[in-house]
Amino acid sequence: MKKRKPFLFYLLLTISAMLFLAALYVFLIPTFNQIAQAAQAASDVAAFYEIRQQTAADPDRGTAPQDHTSGRIPKSESITPDAVTGTGSPEPKYAGLREAMQAYNEQIYEDRQAGLSDPWCYTATVIDLASYGLEGEVVSVLTIPAMDYEEPIYLGATDDHLNRGAAQLSISSMPIGGVNTNCVLAGHRGWNGALHFRHIELLKVGDVVHVTNLWETLTYTVSEIKIIEPWQTEALLIQEGRDLVTLLTCHPYGSGGRYRYVVYCERKE
Predict the structure, then answer these.
(1) What is the number of domains present in the chain?
(2) pTM for the whole thing?
(3) What would the pLDDT profile of 140-181 be if each residue is shown by its tens digit?
(4) Of all helices (H) and strands (E), which one includes residue 264?
């Protein structure tokens, strides 16, 4: 007669299998999170480009060049303001939003960015996009070819915004360019498996960075890279006469934010 295995054997086998599955789950969490975040970012970017394309194709404003395959602005193309709005066309859509952004940029420049040292000011969403008729929270898109990076830009560096893409620090300029502006874009350097600015050290002086807003694509060139202390907020100030986008993240990777990695990108007409 065949001897039956004891109950303890099956109990240990079950526990071992459960522990293995738990370990496998923990190991795969970062991968799952990375896939989920990338999908969410791609969805938000696609939705923004759809709104932007509708804006550009407004029958009262003329039609912008487009990628007829996807309906999106190709990563490699920059669209001039005339191409988007149509030379001599009527007032562009969301003109009120653009004016509000420009007014904010002028205000913080005149105020010398008072309050920038207050960490709570970074999270404020100083412009309500919905009040200007813009659906969603994405205000523009950041594209960095050297990093194979494309993610949405949100106003205000809240935890939610940083988890989803790049976040404009309040008390820094809006992402519309212009003299005497510095739009500081913060990003996690890897977070719960999502990459975000994880590979920012691939950037070198001379690389290009694109910021696509509702009206145009602005192209910046990396001009300087430095490592600063977290309290050195003067490194994030507007620099007179310059049009800057500054990328900001923690350094070194996995250090818990001991330093800040800063990439200055400048746009010249």
Answers:
(1) 1
(2) 0.77
(3) 999 999 999 999 999 999 999 999 999 999 999 999 999 999
(4) strand 259-266
